[in-house]
Amino acid sequence: MGQDEDWRLQGQEEYLLGATLMRKQYKAWSEDWEHDHCEFCRAKFMDPHFSPEHERFISENSDVLIEGYAVQDRRPDESGGAVLGRAYRADGVIERTELSGQRNDYYWVCPTCVVDFAARFNWTVLEAPGQNA
């Protein structure tokens, strides 16, 4: 199967071409938004620190990811409605969620899809803050 026929490709070029992706642990956005999916394969990301139930679910479901690649400086067009942002304390705990101009961590990509699509999408991939892959 050619790369253009890959079922995971569904128009992500419109918003992910040339993006910067940073590897990090997934953190829930809010009480109502506690997981995300890979923009390509739909793999689930969850925060094990969100609740004891989440921690148990993750331990029982090895396919659930707790870290991956968060897209930096990109978010959906706000013309469809407001976009939720996050503010963190120094220890990394979410301090508050609010409508914000923050543009990081809205889109997530799993490690497998980063390997498969980094060249095609011309991504800059950071393995840790301040380090290129």
* Measured distance between first and last alpha carbons: 28 Å
Strand line-up in the sheet with most strands: 7-4-1-8-9
**Radius of gyration over all CA atoms, rounded:** 15 Å
Query: What's the pLDDT, averaged over the residues?
Result: 83
Structure characterization notes:
By secondary structure, the chain is of the alpha+beta class. The chain has a domain at 16-76 and 103-127. It is 18% helix and 29% strand.
Q: What's this, in brief?
A:
By secondary structure, the chain is α+β, with helices and mostly antiparallel strands.
Furnish the topology, listing elements before pairings.
Layout: H1 13-16, E1 20-25, E2 35-37, E3 44-46, H2 52-60, E4 67-72, E5 84-88, E6 94-99, E7 108-109, H3 111-121, E8 124-128, E9 131-132
Parallel strand pairs: 1-8
Antiparallel strand pairs: 1-4, 2-3, 4-7, 5-6, 8-9
Characteristics:
133 residues; five-stranded mixed beta sheet; alpha+beta
